[in-house]
UniProtKB/TrEMBL annotation:
<keyword id="KW-0156">Chromatin regulator</keyword>
<feature type="binding site">
    <location>
        <position position="459"/>
    </location>
    <ligand>
        <name>Zn(2+)</name>
    </ligand>
</feature>
<dbReference type="GO" id="GO:0033151">
    <property type="term" value="P:V(D)J recombination"/>
</dbReference>
<feature type="binding site">
    <location>
        <position position="479"/>
    </location>
    <ligand>
        <name>Zn(2+)</name>
    </ligand>
</feature>
<dbReference type="InterPro" id="IPR004321">
    <property type="entry name" value="RAG2"/>
</dbReference>
<feature type="binding site">
    <location>
        <position position="453"/>
    </location>
    <ligand>
        <name>Zn(2+)</name>
    </ligand>
</feature>
<protein>
    <recommendedName>
        <fullName>V(D)J recombination-activating protein 2</fullName>
    </recommendedName>
</protein>
<feature type="binding site">
    <location>
        <position position="482"/>
    </location>
    <ligand>
        <name>Zn(2+)</name>
    </ligand>
</feature>
<feature type="binding site">
    <location>
        <position position="420"/>
    </location>
    <ligand>
        <name>Zn(2+)</name>
    </ligand>
</feature>
<dbReference type="InterPro" id="IPR011011">
    <property type="entry name" value="Znf_FYVE_PHD"/>
</dbReference>
<dbReference type="Pfam" id="PF13341">
    <property type="entry name" value="RAG2_PHD"/>
</dbReference>
<dbReference type="GO" id="GO:0005634">
    <property type="term" value="C:nucleus"/>
</dbReference>
<dbReference type="InterPro" id="IPR025162">
    <property type="entry name" value="RAG2_PHD"/>
</dbReference>
<feature type="domain" description="Recombination activating protein 2 PHD">
    <location>
        <begin position="415"/>
        <end position="492"/>
    </location>
</feature>
<dbReference type="GO" id="GO:0006325">
    <property type="term" value="P:chromatin organization"/>
</dbReference>
<dbReference type="GO" id="GO:0008270">
    <property type="term" value="F:zinc ion binding"/>
</dbReference>
<keyword id="KW-0233">DNA recombination</keyword>
Length: 528
């Protein structure tokens, strides 16, 4: 094993306990950021690109027909391979915590739909289930088993909020263990069935589960009810005949009392167990090798890496499997870093360099990353890229598509949210789209006066028609302040309506009114 420290540059505070890593064709993607996604990456999914001694996070792209995937921490996650083609697979994501500390009961399928040399596009689909649907939870596991040519997913463990009827004001958001039920999920028909097994007496969370063929091994886990970490090793066997499935459980010797451990696969039948806790305040620094052969499991202690003093003396640690025998580990930065909530990160490689090659992952792995719950999320800081310094092999991503916040001006000072003029009223907290072409940023136009400066189109009283003409025409523009330069197309000034005096109506000609006697006299003279 080799341990390598990554020197944090900035924005590592968003990488908190509970994140997940997904491996698509050797490319590792980060999921479950701290806080809600911002405009720079609305999907909340990033590519981990290790290249030229830097680890960068590049925003991922989703197809237009994808559903929204919120950033979920502590979800259950596993890989589901296609029955037709072994090289096609997707990830199942269930449960987890949202940035508002709400628990999700939804289940998502995330798959890679297109891949080019510059970008990878994903599709996320939400699945509806019927029957015994698992309640919202976190800290649980999900695996896929195969039996008699059929496949099913198996969900177990986790924590959930106390039922509403049992909540008190003092412990409104307290959590409890989920019931130790085993859920079989058939995604083909969208149905779910729960099973109660006598061998599973206590609810478990933050345990490790490893699936192979029709068998799942459950190792460790923490029980809130009695505040213990189970030393038992459970073997779940799922038989899928033509009729109803059969689920059996056997307690095996040789378990390990640990929670929040991480499992990574190093070969077809070998896995490495690292990290976790013996107790709330005692980390587990030992490592184990797990071998699965012929429906048997063997757990032996292996040589641990040379842990750094920071790792040995820190109170908590967290991480996740990167795939291909590598693990990303993090420890709190405490007061050693200027950025609050910043963490130190390490890459632990459990395979030798000559063994580090692409392998088919036949076994499904699912492990939780930390039982340390930091509680409510701190205010989210907008961040488009996380940069780290490291020496590692690249995951072969094109540098041209890397979003680098150093390449972009600070929006708070020189970007879209500047004070462009004395009468500017554009504020990042209250702004709403004014033009039909605006989405999440105000429309701006360059004033050609001097070295040039940007102004908001709305502050210049530009109509949408004039704005479109300016964007299409190759002419110079001058803002209201520099309009006296009279060059190119200028800001149209407001036309002051002249008050015109109303026209006097034509006078009517006066007519003489004749009396009755005069009319009679006139008529007599007319007929004489």
């Amino acid at each position: 094993m080799s341990l390598q420290m990554i020197s944090t540059i900035n924005n590592s505070s968003l990488l908190q306990p509970g994140f997940s890593l997904l491996n698509f064709d050797g490319h590792v993607f980060f999921f479950g950021q701290k806080g809600w996604p911002k405009r720079s990456c609305p999907t909340g999914v990033f590519l981990l690109d290790i290249k030229q001694n830097e680890l960068k996070m590049k925003p991922a792209i989703f197809s237009k027909d994808s559903c929204y995937l919120p950033p979920l921490r502590y979800p259950a996650l596993c890989m589901l391979r296609s029955s037709e083609r072994a090289d096609e697979y997707q990830y199942i994501i269930h449960g987890g915590k949202t940035p508002n500390n709400e628990l999700s009961d939804k289940i998502y399928f995330m798959s890679l739909v297109s891949k080019t040399s510059k970008k990878m596009t994903f599709q996320c689909i939400e699945k509806d289930l019927g029957g015994d649907v698992p309640e919202a939870r976190y800290g649980h596991t999900i695996n896929v088993v195969h039996s008699r040519g059929k496949s099913m997913s198996v969900l177990f463990g986790g924590r959930t909020y106390t039922p509403l009827a049992q909540r008190t004001t003092e412990k409104w958001n307290s959590v409890v263990d989920c019931l130790p039920s085993v859920f079989l999920i058939d995604f083909e028909f969208g149905c779910c069935t729960s099973y109660v097994l006598p061998e599973l007496q206590d609810g478990l969370s933050f345990h490790v589960s490893i699936a192979r063929d029709d068998t799942i091994y459950i190792l460790g886990g923490h029980s809130l009810q009695n505040n213990t970490r189970s030393p038992n090793l459970y073997k779940l066997k799922i038989d899928l005949p033509l009729g109803s499935p059969a689920v059996t459980c056997t307690i095996l010797p040789g378990g390990i009392s640990v929670s929040s451990a991480i499992v990574t696969q190093i070969s077809d039948t070998e896995f490495v167990l690292v990290g976790g806790y013996h107790s709330d305040n005692q980390k587990r620094l030992a490592c184990n090798t797990i071998v699965l052969e012929d429906s048997k499991i063997e757990i032996v202690e292996s040589v641990s890496p040379e842990w750094t003093p920071d790792i040995k003396h820190c109170r908590m640690w967290f991480g996740c499997d990167m795939g291909k025998g590598s693990v990303l580990l993090g420890i709190p930065g405490a007061n050693k870093q200027i950025i609050p909530d910043a963490n130190y990160f390490y890459i632990l490689r459990c395979k030798e360099a000559e063994e580090d090659k692409e392998e088919e992952l036949i076994t499904q792995i699912c492990s939780q990353t930390s039982s340390e719950d930091p509680g409510d999320s701190a205010p989210f800081e907008d961040s488009e890229e996380f940069c780290f310094s490291a020496e590692a092999n690249s995951f072969a991503a094109d540098e041209a598509d890397t979003y680098n916040e150093d390449d972009e001006e600070d929006e708070s000072e020189t970007g879209y949210w500047i004070t462009c003029c004395a009468s500017c009223n554009i504020d990042i907290n209250t702004w709403v789209p004014f033009y039909s072409t605006e989405l999440n940023k105000p429309a701006m136009i360059l004033c050609s006066s001097g070295a040039g400066h940007w102004v908001h189109a709305q502050c210049m009283d530009l109509s949408e028609t004039i704005l479109l003409r300016l964007s299409e025409a190759n002419v110079k523009y001058f803002c209201n302040k520099h309009v006296d330069l009279n060059k190119g197309l200028q800001t149209p000034q407001k036309v002051v309506c002249l008050k015109k005096p109303p026209m006097k109506p034509l006078r009517k000609k006066k007519t003489m009114k004749l009396s009755t006697s005069m009319k009679k006299s006139f008529l007599r003279r007319l007929f004489e």
